[in-house]
Amino acid sequence: MFYVCKLDDLEIGDSIRLDQYNPPIAVIRGESGQVYAIDDTCTHAEASFCDGFVEGDTVECPLHMSVFCLKTGTPDNPPAIKGVTTHIVDIKDGEIHIEVQR
Ligand code: FES
Question: What number is the average pLDDT over the span 4-25?
């Protein structure tokens, strides 16, 4: 498990990009308050989800507006077709940890 940050430091709708992974991982807090970790790079044309827009528990790609489910990594609409990998998130004692699924 990799420590990301304290839960209180990631506000609803905010994200943190972990550039030490290839591809980078986006840790995003959805509007439900749930924290998700997905590969940060859009499968269509390599935009960063950390520059996107969180709505509900989805993130809209900032380039061509495909909307990805944060839970499954699946896009809901074109032009992106392929999903992104999701990673396990564990919140313990107010701290966010992720387990990378590669
Ligand atoms: S780069 Fe994400 S939809 Fe085009």
Answer: 97
